């Protein structure tokens, strides 16, 4: 618990710091990009200059993308939790992933239709699962299987070191058959800015953002990994107050009183 607290505080401190830097940096990038666009017109007839400007503009684009991620991280968006039906969410996510992940990755979705709704920000939750799925993809450069499932999860007693109160939860599991992580990487994977990906490819913010979101939502994020075999991420979220269902999932029940 001590470690968790230290982690949250560090996350918050890093958040404040990055927010300021990302903002200023973004302003500088705007100036650079504006001037490069001017140069682009001037360099129109010189292939070498043109090529250089194009490369520079592309780099500015990547920089802007990174600052956007940093700002999103620093802002730690205020959450608007709502009742989310896991089956609906995973169905939609599965469709999206099948379109985006390519043919070498087999996507498997497994969720009982009657699973109760969780209480979490729907947009952030989808973003978190997507984040984990994209990490899984990155871990399977030569293809593999990505399984996403949801199950009821009960916490029966609060033992020592227990993080969540007794109660009912839903556990989302994102498992891949990828490269896995050695223990030293696994130990640092949730740290902001920790990445093993080549520069430009990873910001190292994905898992720390997912971690922050899950904590803020009253849940828990757990990682298991075996080098050479794959990784499993478990995202545990509290249930929505009973009776709360997202409007889209309300079913009209023909009853004596009609509707
Ligand atoms: P990024 O993806 O930008 O590197 P993350 O915070 O999402 O940042 O992940 C941090 C690191 O954790 C990754 O660079 C990678 O080394 C490791 N990691 C995360 N997910 C997986 C996975 N599914 N399989 C193997 N390694 C992973």
Order of secondary-structure elements:
HHEHEEHEEHHEE
- List the strand order in the largest sheet: 2-4-5-7-6
The distinct bound ligands, ions and cofactors come out as: adenosine-5'-diphosphate
Counting helices, strands and paired strands, the structural category is alpha+beta
Indicate the radius of gyration in whole angstroms.
Answer: 22 Å
Residue windows where pLDDT falls under 50 for at least 5 positions: 246-259
Largest sheet: 5 strands, mixed
Shape, principal axes of CA atoms? globular
Distance between the termini: 50 Å
Proportion of helical residues: 40-55%
State mean pLDDT (0 to 100 scale). 86
Range of strand content:
15-25%
Number of strands: 7
Regarding quaternary structure, what we see is single chain
Number of helices: 6
Can you give me a brief rundown of this structure?
This protein has helices spanning 2-42, 47-75, 86-100, 122-138, 183-188, 206-216, and strands at 82-84, 105-110, 118-120, 144-155, 167-176, 220-226, 230-238. It is of the alpha+beta class. Adenosine-5'-diphosphate binds at residues 135-136, 139, 176, 178-181, 185, 189, 194-197, 202-208, 231.
């Amino acid at each position: 618990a001590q470690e968790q607290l230290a982690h949250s505080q560090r996350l918050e401190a890093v958040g404040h710091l990055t927010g300021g830097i990302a903002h200023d940096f973004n302003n500088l990038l705007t100036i650079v990009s504006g001037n490069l666009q001017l140069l682009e017109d001037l360099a129109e007839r010189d292939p070498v200059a043109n090529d250089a400007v194009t490369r520079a503009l592309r780099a500015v684009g990547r920089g802007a993308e990174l600052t956007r991620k940093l700002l999103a991280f620093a802002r730690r968006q205020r959450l608007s939790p709502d009742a989310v039906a896991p089956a609906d969410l995973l169905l939609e996510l599965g469709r999206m992933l099948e379109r985006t992940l390519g043919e070498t990755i087999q996507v498997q979705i497994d969720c009982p239709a009657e699973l109760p709704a969780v209480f979490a920000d729907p947009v952030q939750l989808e973003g978190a699962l997507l984040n984990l799925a994209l990490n899984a993809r990155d871990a399977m450069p030569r293809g593999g299987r990505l399984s996403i499932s949801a199950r009821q999860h009960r916490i029966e007693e609060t033992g020592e070191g227990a993080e969540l109160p007794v109660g009912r939860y839903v556990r989302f599991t994102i498992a891949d058959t990828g490269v896995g992580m050695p223990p030293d990487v696994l130990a640092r994977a949730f740290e902001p800015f920790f990445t093993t990906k080549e520069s430009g490819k990873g910001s190292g913010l994905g898992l720390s953002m997912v971690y922050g979101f899950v904590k803020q939502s009253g849940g828990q994020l757990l990682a298991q990994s075996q080098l050479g075999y794959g990784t499993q991420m478990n995202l545990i979220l509290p249930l929505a107050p009973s009776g709360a269902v997202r409007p889209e999932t309300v079913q009209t029940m023909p009853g004596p009183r009609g509707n």
